[in-house]
Amino acid sequence: MAKYLAQIIVMGAQVVGRAFARALRQEFAASRAAADARGRAGHQSAAASNLSGLSLQEAQQILNVSKLSPEEIQKNYEHLFKVNDKSVGGSFYLQSKVVRAWERLQEELRIQAQENREKEQMPKT
């Protein structure tokens, strides 16, 4: 009986070990893919993500915008800011997340405008 119990424990440990190793490999692959995506996004955008603590995708999700349209960003920001105001029963935490997301998207718009100006100034060959 003890022999069978030991075999069951060993087999269970092997299964858990394999599952853990597979999960670890998947996490490394996902991390590598995310790092590559950040690298393609540009150094300024990555720096803005580090400063604000939010990635561009997170900021877009918080403000519920799919593309970087200044009008849509501002409209959603104003709505979410008012809805989450503490005086109307909202959450200060959520309101601060909305503000940080708005700041992050404003920074991204500034970066894109700067890149567009630099492209326009480049001599055409």
From TrEMBL:
Annotated GO biological process: protein import into mitochondrial matrix
UniProt name for this protein: Mitochondria-associated granulocyte macrophage CSF-signaling molecule
Domain of life: Eukaryota
Cellular compartments per GO CC: PAM complex, Tim23 associated import motor
Localization in the cell: Mitochondrion inner membrane
Keywords for this protein: Membrane, Mitochondrion, Mitochondrion inner membrane, Protein transport, Translocation, Transport
Protein transport among keywords: yes
Purpose of the protein: Regulates ATP-dependent protein translocation into the mitochondrial matrix. Inhibits DNAJC19 stimulation of HSPA9/Mortalin ATPase activity.
Principal place of residence: mitochondrion
Record's bilayer topology term: Peripheral membrane protein
Similarity comment: family membership: Belongs to the TIM16/PAM16 family.
Pfam families: Pam16
